[in-house]
Amino acid sequence: MGRIFLFLSFVIGLSLHSQDFRDKYPQDYFRSPLDIPLYLSGNFAELRSNHFHAGLDIKTQGFEGQKIYAVADGYISRIKVSPYGYGKAIYVTHPNGYTSVYGHLQKYSDKIAELVKEKQYESERFDVHIFPSPFSIPVKKGEIIAYSGNSGGSAGPHLHFEIRETASEHPVNPLFFGFDIKDDIPPQIYKIAIYPLDDESYINGANKMKYFQAKGSYGKYKIDYPYPILLQGTFGFGIMAVDRMNSTHNKYGLHNLQLYFDEEKVYEQEINEFAFHEGRYINSHVDYAFYALKGLRFQKNFVDPGNRLRIYKSLVNEGKIVINDEQEHTLKYIASDLYGNEATIEFTIEGKKYPAIPKSSDLSSAKIKFLAHDRSHSFIEDEVLVRIPKGLLYDDIYFEYRKEEGTDKTISPIYWLHNRFTPLHSYMTVAIRKEGLPSELKSKALIVSTTNGRNWYAEGGSWKGDQLSVRTRSFGGYAIAIDSTAPSITPVNIYPGANMNKKWSIQFKIDDDLSGIGSYRAEVDGKWILMDYDAKNRLITHYFDGRIGSGEHELVLKVKDERGNLSTYTAKFRR
């Protein structure tokens, strides 16, 4: 029989299923944050780019302006306004040890909006972060605290809703608290992947990852492959699967996933809560290279040595399975949601002895350096320096480097640092030496990155002597570019001499072609005015609120990019 190395590594987790999570979490304490039926566009711990989703995305019937209610008595402990992330958000601390979070809001209730605007005018900036003193802004259960919107990084109107442990700030699955969600639909399984984990492991004679389509419906699946799957060596397995819910077509994250090998559980994951600093480990939890290439996520059911996630309830040999015989073996997945709906897929593999296959000695024309995941590393070659602190790599890699001629968009060669298929957990430092650059160009220079040599992304950077350095979280191509072009300002509803008496706002579109918008400032008659910044749509808007009286006025808008290039728009208007 094939054997699994019996090195057991158990991560102690909280076991919650539909029959017992009600014993731990109060079921009647929180009301719904909306007064419409709750349908989700995203659930807790759903897989997202670089993080797990921290709450529920609740549909708001396709439009903004739904009333948002405090889910229980408490006080407002935090208010944040940002053009990114959660946009306009409110945090309410409750006496039972939890904090509720409401994100992507359109606007706040009057008493909160008054405080926010006061802080914005005091600091003369749109984005503010306010921490009211405890109990200074009490709210009652069912009190209207805001209206739903699409602010920040939202891709459409909805409410982002979280419940966090107040003491730890860890988000907890809000569905533990008894919200009325209908779900009697099992998860859906799409594909199974098999990964050879060393050079002596083969799948049907090949030493490369292979995936197999699943077929079936309503919880029962099998592999759509008519031939034996022949394995020899050490392997990891992966699955592409999602949850489903009633009355929606959305795809959701799984609550629990188990893998059995010959009836022995070798892997189990379950996400009930997590810490925000753990979120980026998702890049190790999924097949990052496949996602970077195809845009689809396999969840790996084996754990990289640098992966520190706490979601793994059961692990045998870190989820790795060794096949060294010529016997048949059975593997079975059980994927389940919070309400006990299950989907299973069971398939057989067969051990197969293969003769040794000679390996090519031609790695590539690139320079190769071995980097251990549990060490810090420095790499110096040509004009580039790379520092990779300990803890950034999830596994050992053979770091590849090459230098290419620059393009018409760069003033340096392109330095290719490994590849875009390997993730980093945090920031490495990249420094590029450029001698003889005049001071007027130095101030406009920045490091840019690319994955294909054509599309460039601003990374920024600061000078120390003739070396420009930046902290970045991705491998790829790096070079120096010059940004000497000022941002663009496009008026949407104003022009010199305009009569704005019947308008409710002044609006502009602002954009920059490289380094990005750094700051903006609008004044009317020499006084700062508030302009909301919708970064995703590149819009800034002033909503008339009585501060600008009747008569003739002069508007001056100044926009700077991250390299200090300035654009100015001036117009006189009547109100």
Textual characterization of the structure:
By secondary structure, this protein is mostly beta strands. The chain folds into 4 domains: 26-177, Distorted Sandwich (Glucose Permease (Domain IIA)); 188-351, no CATH class; 367-482, Chondroitinase Ac, Chain A, domain 3, CATH 2.60.220; 488-574, Immunoglobulin-like (Sandwich). The protein is 6% helix and 44% strand. The protein contains 5 helices and 46 strands. Strands 1, 4, 6, 7, 8, 10, 11, 13 and 14 form a 9-stranded antiparallel β-sheet that branches. A 6-stranded antiparallel β-sheet has the order 27-30-31-37-33-34, with no helix packed on it. The longest helix is centred in the first third of the chain and has 14 residues, at 110-123.
